[in-house]
Amino acid sequence: xxxxxxxxxxKTLYKIDKEEAYSNIALDEMIKxxxxxxxxxxxxxxxxxxxxxxxxxxxxxxxxxxxxxxxxKKISPWILNILRxxxxxxxxxxxxxxxxxxxxxxxxxxxxGHKGSRNFVNAILRKVDKKDYEAFFEIENPIERLSKTTxxxxxxxxxxxxxxxxxxxxxxCKASNIRPKVTIRINTLKTxxxxxxxxxxxxxxxxxxxxxxxxxxxxxxxNIEKLDLFKQGYFTIQDEGxxxxxxxxxxxxxxxxxxxxxSPGGKTTYMAExxxxxxxxxxxxxxxxxxxxxxxxxxRLGINMITVQCQDATIYKEEYKEKFDKILxxxxxxxxxxxxxKPDIKWKxxxxxxxxxxxxxxxxxxxxxxxxxxxxxxxxxxxxxIREENDCIIEKxxxxxxxxxxxxxxxxxxxxxxxxxxxxxLYQNNETDGFFICKLQKK
Length: 443
Prior knowledge:
This protein is 47% helix and 15% strand. By secondary structure, it is α/β, with parallel strands linked by helices.
């Protein structure tokens, strides 16, 4: 008999691989499709397998190569993912007995393959042991060792080594495999921290203080978007680092602000809350379906000061010349700062993608800077940890635009320093995702 929980995980992994679906979206869709067959604890286990296999795919595939006489690309996608699931459970999940991992994988192979597939899966998984992973730590080449022990593409490690020593790069790579905390932003237009904490605890959700103001960390919270408090707009699910970007721009009530890359609207709506829903925010995104996400978020939170438009931020609009007090540019990037939430990015992105992305980032900054009033401020941000997308973009812009300078970042709940802070680079850790944030002032 097939285990429905592992079968849902398998179908999700197949969608991620063959349909190039994003892991979080594919997982949500598969859980919704099978919700009537699943318990809450089942959803947790499915998520564990899907994110675990996707995060550790490089390492797991290296283990498969050691025992398979068939090349990976010749193995059926269904059988390959069954092997990956089995190995993840054997090597990385202490709570699953090896016998259960092997037997359930063989059952799946029987349905999604043939007799030969079943024997193939059984033979490989019976040989696999935790020591197969431990052996990677003995590799002499530091880049290869780090790649296989943290499941990180070599090109990403090489990019990080341009700026950091191997110890720092190892710390960054390890953090990309941490399961993220559930953090929420309090909608101060509808409630306050104390009231929301009490309401959440009444629903048996463990609440802890966030690192930054307006944020809480939730534990034992499942299906959070189904919660009545979410639907009523009392809070937004948002990483604290993402929220920090809006805080750095420091929007004030009554100002006119442009958010040129706004979807799905987390930073846009936070700015509106900080502005007490007074003033105007013009929110752009390139795709109509993503524009709709911003509108839906604003409506749920009770915000009516956001005007959403489908607009390409690289195309200059003369009517907006020097119109905005402040501008937020959270530009498209490689996304290497959010791997613990979207581990599939590691396998979708390639080194050669950087050229086109950098051109887009430069174009958005150059174009949108013309929309800023004199004395106005821009915050340029990415969810990236790679210098070429961050410091290099700012340095090139300032060389070309002498009427701009880096502005001091003040009044934030970050580590105290005697230095004047003009740029913030957050790396993935237990607290936040990875972000680059820089504030620019028009002279």
